[in-house]
Prior knowledge:
Elements: E1 18-20, H1 25-35, E2 39-44, E3 47-53, H2 54-63, H3 72-75, E4 81-83, H4 88-98, E5 102-106, E6 112-117, H5 118-123, H6 136-140, E7 149-150, H7 155-165, E8 169-174, E9 177-183, H8 184-192, E10 211-213, H9 218-228, E11 232-236, E12 242-247, H10 248-253, H11 259-262, H12 271-274, E13 280-286, E14 291-296, H13 298-304, H14 319-332, E15 334-342, E16 345-358, E17 361-371, H15 373-380, H16 390-407, E18 411-418, H17 421-428, H18 430-445, E19 453-456, E20 461-467, H19 471-486, E21 490-491, E22 497-498, E23 502-509, H20 516-532, E24 538-539
Parallel strand pairs: 1-2, 4-5, 7-8, 10-11, 23-24
Antiparallel strand pairs: 2-3, 5-6, 8-9, 11-12, 13-14, 13-17, 15-16, 16-17, 18-20, 18-23, 19-20, 21-22
Helix pairs in contact: 1-8, 2-7, 2-8, 17-18
Amino acid sequence: MGIENILLHEIIESKNMWVPxxxxxxxxLKTMDQNKKGVAVALENGQPVxxxxxxxxISLLYQGIDKTAxxxxxxxxxxxxxxxxxxxxxxxxxxxxxxxxxxxVTDEDGRFLGVVTQKDLLMHxxxxxxxxTLRIKHVLDQKRNLIAVxxxxxIKAVLEIMVAHNISSVxxxxxxxxxGIITEKDILRVANDNVPLGETVDLYMSxxxxxxxxxxxxxxxxxxxxxxNIRRIVVNDIDGKTIGLLTNRDFVKNLDGDYNQFLEMKLxxxxxxxxxxPEMLIELIDLRDExxxxxxxxxxxxxxxxNILDTPITELIPQAKWDEIYSHMLEKGKVGDVRFKTAxxxxxxxxxxxxxxxxxxxxxxxxxxRDITEEVIQASVDPLTSVFNRRYTSDFLVKExxxxxxxxxxxxxxxxxxxxxxxxxxxxGHMAGDTVLQxxxxxxxxxxxxxxxxxxxxxxxxxIIMPEIDKKVAASAAERIRQKIATREIExxxxxxxxxxxSFGVACFPEGxxxxxxxxxxxxxxxxxxxxxxxxxxxxx
Length: 541
């Protein structure tokens, strides 16, 4: 699809891109840091009335502006706006004519839709690689002399340089070579972290520095920048000496009058480059009845083995899940943030569909996979006890309630709380308290079934969810656990052995409540009933 056929509303970014005009400046800076686009828009009644960019942050930080001040004082300004039904080619011309790096996109009523950047333009290319002969030295000839600093330069001095020269980044040099770079994004991080401006830049510079030679093809460099998700690149001469710095803006400027040829690029690069990337990349061939892995980069092959080639993708992604994904891609052309599990690991992937009509081949599918197992664990597991955290346990309770309603089944919940736990911390210290929590969870897990769920619900409070179990059976299980804990000696780091007791409250669906909240309220009331009746007991009526 050419740039004259791609509409802006199809590629704009809207998440974390705006704040109300009456917000404090620090809220604006946080939003900008979250979206990673180097810009945030101020809205009034849903319409854009102002904007701040990373370049503005540099100026404000240099002036020592109070970050609690209303953003309206600094963001409200005339804006260059365009409609969401404009094309990519039109947006490129608009940016070049107005010398801007970002466009604010609205609907026909003037309401904010999102933002498109020069980097977005360079990311959406034609189906085939462009054949332009423009080289880095041709782009660099149009640049002013390199402005750089050394490692011991202060942040304040760099800010002064960036403001004075109206530049977005400054290389950090050592022996004629760039060893780091301070960018607008780094300055934004400094502002959000309240870093003293007297600190030296070597503590906050970005590294490693991505570089290229003066004879490199501009097309190849742009591809590389897109894949690495960077906005600027250092230029070295044939001896390796840093002589310049190029940004996305410099490349876009060179498209003036001939941008169609420059933008004739496919949304993939050579297999050699893809093999170097840390992401897992898979290409499928769609043969209508099945989708086979026709190519995978080295990261995929080292993870899943070379046998993955020439096999159906359903060998990796469960059939039911893939059927849903495939149908969506045929309809929408792409899919994003899909998760699946295989071999005990959790993966997330995005992909897009390239339709073809070539013999038996219906199209090609490109997938980008990421192993998020550790992220999932961190998001769902309590780091101290290694049981599920409150968020995961609450989500499971909601799902189990829905399942039991649908299947007309019963299940039970048990809330338990360690008796006199504060006294343990006060007498023996918090490390002793941590040991007690760990020992208690191990003791509980030993008495649960494989499909029961145990989660830490609060400091010394735990929740057990027992599918397909009625109240009496759950109470019996709680009693076994209670006795086991009451007779267990827990050895502290000091060698001292102590004993603790636990109180339990049991509730059952649907008798004790038809919703997760109702069940928790009933179980919690019974827990405190156990506390009032002397502790170290189970209450279920």
